[in-house]
Amino acid sequence: MRKFTNLLVTGGAGFIGSNFIRYVLNQTGFSGRIINLDKLTYAGNLENLADVQQAFPERYFLEHGDICDKAFVDRVWSEYKVDAVAHFAAESHVDRSILGPGEFIRTNVEGTFTLLEVARDHWKGREDVLFHHVSTDEVYGSLGKTGYFTEQTPYDPRSPYSASKAASDHLVNAWFHTYHLPVTKSNCSNNYGPFHFPEKLIPLMILKLQKGETLPVYGDGKNVRDWLFVDDHAEAIWTVMTRGRPGETYNVGGENEWENLKLVEVLCQTTALALGKDKDAFLPLIRFVPDRPGHDRRYAIDCSKIKKELGWKPRTEFAQGLEKTVAWYLAHSEWVKNVVSGAYKTWMDRNYASR
Ligand code: NAD
Ligand code: DAU
């Protein structure tokens, strides 16, 4: 089992990064330090880690800055003697990438390149270190009604977001083969759970339900996504980081496919029950709206490699995970109010005001 002392987490103030930090510090027996390097964009919120900051003042550190800033990354690396990286930092929302791809190329491609170069400078010849890249199933493109993405599926990204993640995956693989940088990679399906930024389907719908607003379902609602509870993803990443083979990619998924429309219907019912309403009270709020350009039809992950090789499997039953998530959002209105009121609001006003 691989061991680390000083773990650099990029993008740790975002949705998955913050859940990962909480998971590692509380549930893995890891006894070292975590350094969270985050630019705190609209998607990064320190409130996501308020409990961690309080519980681990001597083992959790925040470094506010940009992964594209080489001098800054270099300083953090030296100061904390980084010996492992879990690289989450990215622009992560497909719709935003369609409206403004530039920031996706900068952070996801140039940012990953910068991190890899600093890792190469600092870790020359070392084998007791690891750079883990957190990636997405979207790099594989779009499936028809049947079939699954395996680690051998050729890359076929369709959106600016997935193209930028595909590029970053290729960089990570290249640094392994060319410079022998010890790397691992995981490509995961759609996550859900607490601290998910309410621009993404599940939290967006929960908030709209709370406000009694209509629920925008893109196209015919028959696009399929494979949903995984975020703690299960955190466990998968930790499993790969501690036991995965260098240079390898592991697909991670929930084995839990849902058509968007069906999922929104279930969310309506789960939220109605949580609010003490009739189960079907919210269904009339569903509206079909114009489709996302280039909308991938179906994602489905074959995660048999990580299951067989490393013994990981998705644990959270979907109905329970959704109930937990709905309950969390209903109990955290203050968090929601805070995260949607800053840079996010400005961007939405600019891009969506006229719609
Ligand atoms: P998120 O948008 O919630 O968080 C991204 C974090 O990165 C934020 O804290 C943000 O402040 C930070 N960040 C952005 N640009 C930065 C920069 N230039 N320098 C430093 N920090 C920066 O994203 P998420 O949903 O938590 O996704 C995390 C990672 O997991 C991403 O790499 C994403 O591609 C990948 N992923 C996400 C999902 C999903 O369902 N959300 C699934 C598979 C893979
Ligand atoms: O598959 C992994 C990916 O999952 C991650 O790499 C991305 O970072 C993450 O954002 C997510 O991408 P999606 O585009 O699948 O997630 P999103 O929540 O934006 O949309 C899920 C599905 O719901 C998708 O088919 C589009 C649809 N949708 C989304 C929104 C926001 C709607 O129908 N209505 C909506 O309002």
3D architecture notes:
- It is a single chain.
- The protein is 44% helix and 16% strand.
- The chain is an alpha/beta fold.
- It has a domain at 6-192 and 228-255 and 298-316: 3-Layer(aba) Sandwich (Rossmann fold), CATH 3.40.50.720.
- The longest helix is centred in the first third of the chain and has 21 residues, at 102-122.
- The mean pLDDT is 96.
- Bound molecules: nicotinamide-adenine-dinucleotide and 2'deoxy-thymidine-5'-diphospho-alpha-D-glucose.
- Nicotinamide-adenine-dinucleotide is lined by residues 10-11, 13-17, 38-41, 43-44, 66-68, 88-92, 107, 111, 134-136, 165, 188, 190-191, 197.
Main features:
globular; alpha/beta; binds nicotinamide-adenine-dinucleotide; about 350 residues; Rossmann fold; binds 2'deoxy-thymidine-5'-diphospho-alpha-D-glucose
Q: What's a concise summary of this model?
A:
The protein is an alpha/beta fold and 355 residues long. The protein is 44% helix and 16% strand.
Average pLDDT figure: 96
- Kindly provide the name of the CATH class of the domain at 6-192 and 228-255 and 298-316: Alpha Beta
Strand line-up across the major sheet: 3-2-1-4-5-6-10
What small-molecule ligands were found? nicotinamide-adenine-dinucleotide, 2'deoxy-thymidine-5'-diphospho-alpha-D-glucose
CATH level-four homologous superfamily name of the domain at 6-192 and 228-255 and 298-316: NAD(P)-binding Rossmann-like Domain
SSE order: EHEHEHEHHEHEEHEEHEEHEHHHH
Helical proportion, percent range: 40-55%
* Cα-atom radius of gyration: 20 Å
SS element count, helices:
13
Report the CATH topology name of the domain at 6-192 and 228-255 and 298-316. Rossmann fold
